[in-house]
């Protein structure tokens, strides 16, 4: 005869999963830890991004001279009125638009073609992909000075090649269209390879099955590019177009160093908004007006990006409704 110990009462459901609550300090630390990880970024952004933006808006409402930055005189919207009534502002805005079109459209088309070639299995394609970044890694000052020599009127290589085919020399630094083409050429040379690598990454994310299906249907490589590659790259193309537009609006180094003049040529023929702002702030010492120009450029970029986003959204909705 064996004796059995009485069975212990069953634990209520969920009691095995219950654990003692951590102290309040530990719970607070767990909640604060994610914010502590991202705090350095927001601290740097507030110090070097948000504060300068807000302070520039504040300065744009005052009359501030570079010689006496501590003396501020309230002007309200007077700086903006002076900017919009200045003929050189509208000239620089037109030059910015012209140079932006002359540099953005060719570089994106060339980048798309180079990315399409690099997407094939070529010998030494790693070398060519690396070489695409060399112009982007080159200093703006060094590249611009070299191109300024190439576009020289008397001893430039470009005019020499033009003379070989029987044409007369072009004054690339004083002509309006010629100087804008020269500045745009520098921008195209620097940024084409960068955009080509972005397009290449987008092409490699397109499923290979789509190309195989198109090839089975008898589509040539050109039709595959038009009907498979381009639709798959549409978000990437919109991104590069927006970024290139922003870069064209802020263009500064290339036109400044092309001739070494803050006025953008003898008749302001290639003065951009960036050069115009620099001339007002550090050439004429009007810091308040320069701050107003900076905010006009910022609002212009916001409008351009907003229009691009609106057009892209409408196109996506239109395609989704088919």
From TrEMBL:
InterPro entries the record matches: ABC_transporter_permease (IPR051393), MetI-like (IPR000515), MetI-like_sf (IPR035906)
Sorted UniProt keywords: Cell membrane, Membrane, Transmembrane, Transmembrane helix, Transport
Pfam family, one: BPD_transp_1
GO biological process per UniProt: transmembrane transport
Ranges annotated as spanning the membrane: 35-58, 97-118, 130-151, 292-312
Subcellular location: Cell membrane
Topology relative to the membrane: Multi-pass membrane protein
Region (Disordered): 1-23
Domain called ABC transmembrane type-1: residue spans: 93-308
Cellular component aspect of the GO annotation: plasma membrane
Biased composition (Low complexity): 1-17
Family per similarity comment: Belongs to the binding-protein-dependent transport system permease family.
Protein name: ABC transporter permease
Annotated source species: Streptomyces solincola
Top-level taxonomy: Bacteria, Bacillati, Actinomycetota, Actinomycetes, Kitasatosporales
């Amino acid at each position: 005869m064996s004796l059995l110990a009485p069975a212990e009462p069953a634990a209520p459901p969920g009691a095995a999963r219950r654990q003692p609550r951590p102290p309040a300090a530990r719970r607070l630390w767990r909640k604060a830890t994610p914010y502590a990880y991202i705090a350095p970024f927001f601290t740097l952004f507030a110090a070097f991004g948000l504060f300068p933006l807000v302070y520039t808006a504040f300065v744009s409402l005052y009359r501030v001279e570079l010689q006496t930055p501590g003396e501020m005189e309230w002007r309200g919207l007077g700086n903006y009125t002076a900017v919009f009534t200045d003929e050189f502002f509208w000239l620089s805005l037109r030059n910015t638009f012209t140079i932006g079109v002359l540099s953005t459209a060719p570089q994106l088309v060339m980048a798309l073609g180079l990315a399409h070639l690099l997407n094939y299995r070529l010998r030494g394609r790693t070398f060519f992909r690396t070489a695409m970044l060399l112009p982007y890694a080159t200093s703006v000052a060094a590249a611009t000075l070299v191109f300024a020599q190439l576009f020289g009127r008397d001893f430039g290589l470009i005019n020499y090649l033009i003379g070989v085919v029987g044409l007369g020399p072009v004054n690339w630094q004083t002509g309006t269209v010629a100087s804008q083409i020269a500045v745009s050429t520098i921008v195209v040379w620097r940024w084409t390879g960068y955009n080509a690598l972005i397009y290449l990454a987008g092409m490699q994310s397109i499923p290979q099955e789509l190309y195989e299906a198109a090839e089975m249907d008898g589509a040539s490589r050109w039709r595959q590019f038009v009907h498979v590659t381009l639709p798959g790259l549409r978000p990437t193309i919109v991104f590069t177009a927006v970024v290139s537009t922003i870069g064209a609006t802020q263009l500064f180094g290339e036109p400044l160093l092309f001739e070494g003049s803050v006025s953008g040529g003898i008749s302001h023929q290639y003065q951009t908004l960036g050069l115009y702002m620099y001339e007002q702030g550090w050439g004429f010492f009007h810091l308040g007006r320069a701050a107003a120009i900076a905010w006009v450029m910022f609002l212009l970029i916001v409008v351009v990006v907003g229009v691009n986003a609106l057009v892209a959204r409408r196109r996506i909705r239109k395609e989704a409704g088919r």
